């Protein structure tokens, strides 16, 4: 009875069907393109076509008609690592406490309730604008939740090292730490001024360690920076349980995707340009570029308030550990000021979608 009436409606109205997707690529590979049943009385007048229209069914953590937006959830004000307003040593030249940038979460391999945060921190209270040469790599710990709050644990590499990216490489059975920088031999610096990149280019180096607390091997340079801005390395191992490779893919700011057969091998250019968000089924492409923003600068807090930040950058995702790669948290650098003289910055950790609750429950939090 019901079916008959739909059919009648369907056949007697004009086609208004909008096909939301044709392939999974139209869903950014963050979801799948599925046939969708829609009922004429709950949508607009329609025809048979719309009953079988195809829509993106987004994976957990993603939303939007092309699954291109991160489903960021309200965040606790004290999440992450915000030590930008801590009291500073009066002998320090800067007022910005332990400002930080570009944090990344790792779960401890022995103690699942312990989380590590690797980030750039700025020495001497200098803040973000004095990043070159004041940036160094630090490790902080949280025993409460993956979201933090995190507390300073140790300095991984003294100045000048910046943009750390750490992951466990199953092929090498080691942690790999990618970073830009050089060792600064200068005596104690007396001001927070930055150094020109022509003096210290953004070359990328890698170090390794069997334990997340180190000791780390000396840095080996893997990418010589021809461009002033080829910073912000984003490496990822291509290893999966079905494809046990030591190959590493390395994305670089504004520029390119490189690939190497092993982490300390030769990195060859595989794709020359990186947009706002790019994805492909195969490394060889085709790669799809989307300028559509995955998130914006407004942060909603769990107490109902919100803040639109002046800086929200160097976002990194923490994925589920089941090879599904469900995004659970995003760490990001936040600053309430533009990058003016000084400028405090901190690291905020925001939950994504709904699966993080399950993850935290499974850890007993
Ligand atoms: C970090 O802490 C400072 C001082 O408590 C605060 O003013 C600032 O809003 C915090 N930043 C974020 C992004 O919450
Ligand atoms: C700030 O960083 C220094 C290392 O530069 C560390 O010794 C200190 O404990 C940190 N302070 C806080 C409050 O985290
Ligand atoms: C860095 O040095 C180069 C070469 O001397 C110069 O052209 C450039 O303007 C300098 N950049 C800054 C930000 O000072
Ligand atoms: C970094 O790269 C530059 C430019 O390509 C090169 O001249 C320089 O030797 C490298 N620096 C270090 C410390 O290896
Ligand atoms: C920011 O993104 C949220 C959804 O994540 C959206 O609701 C909001 O309108 C966006 N704000 C701006 C200014 O685009
Ligand atoms: C942010 O909070 C203000 C003040 O409570 C409110 O007027 C505004 O609508 C909120 N903005 C968003 C995007 O939720």
TrEMBL record:
Alphabetically sorted, this entry's keywords are: Signal
Annotated InterPro entries: Glyco_hydro_beta-prop_sf
Q: Does the keyword Ribonucleoprotein apply?
A: no
Q: Which residues form a coiled coil?
A: none
Write out the ranges of the annotated region (Disordered).
81-105
Cross-referenced Gene3D superfamilies: Glycosyl hydrolase domain, family 43 (2.115.10.20)
In the record, which residues are listed under signal peptide? 1-17
Can you say what this protein is called?
EGF-like domain-containing protein
């Amino acid at each position: 009875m019901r079916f008959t009436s739909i059919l009648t409606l369907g056949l007697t109205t004009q086609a208004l069907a909008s096909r939301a997707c044709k392939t999974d690529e139209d869903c950014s590979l963050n979801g799948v393109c599925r046939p969708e049943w829609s009922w004429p009385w709950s949508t607009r007048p329609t025809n048979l076509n719309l009953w079988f229209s195809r829509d993106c069914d987004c994976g957990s953590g993603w939303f939007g008609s092309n699954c291109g937006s991160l489903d960021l959830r309200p965040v606790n004000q004290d999440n992450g690592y915000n030590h930008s307003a801590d009291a500073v040593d009066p002998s320090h030249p800067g007022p910005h406490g332990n400002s930080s940038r570009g944090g990344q979460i790792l779960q401890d391999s022995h103690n699942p309730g312990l989380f590590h945060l690797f980030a750039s921190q700025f020495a001497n209270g200098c803040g973000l604008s004095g990043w070159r040469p004041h940036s160094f790599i630090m490790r902080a710990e949280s025993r409460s939740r993956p979201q933090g709050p995190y507390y300073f644990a140790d300095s991984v590499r003294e100045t000048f090292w910046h943009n750390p990216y750490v992951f466990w490489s199953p092929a090498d059975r080691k942690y790999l730490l990618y970073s830009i920088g050089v060792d600064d031999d200068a005596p104690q610096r007396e001001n927070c001024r930055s150094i020109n990149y022509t003096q210290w280019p953004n070359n990328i180096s890698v170090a390794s360690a069997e334990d997340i607390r180190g000791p780390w091997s000396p840095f080996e340079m893997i990418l010589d920076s021809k461009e002033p801005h080829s910073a912000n390395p984003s490496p990822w191992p291509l290893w999966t349980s079905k494809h046990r490779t030591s190959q590493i893919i390395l994305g670089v700011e504004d520029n390119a995707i490189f690939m190497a057969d092993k982490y300390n091998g030769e990195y060859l250019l595989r794709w020359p340009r990186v947009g706002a968000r790019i994805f492909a089924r195969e490394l060889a492409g085709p790669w799809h570029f989307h300028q559509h923003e995955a998130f914006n600068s407004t942060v909603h807090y769990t107490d109902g308030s919100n803040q639109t930040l002046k800086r929200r950058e160097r976002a990194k995702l923490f994925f589920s550990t089941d090879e599904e790669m469900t995004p659970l948290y995003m760490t990001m650098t936040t600053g309430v000021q533009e990058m003016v003289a000084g400028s405090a910055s901190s690291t905020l950790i925001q939950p994504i979608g709904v699966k993080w609750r399950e993850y935290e429950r499974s850890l007993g939090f």
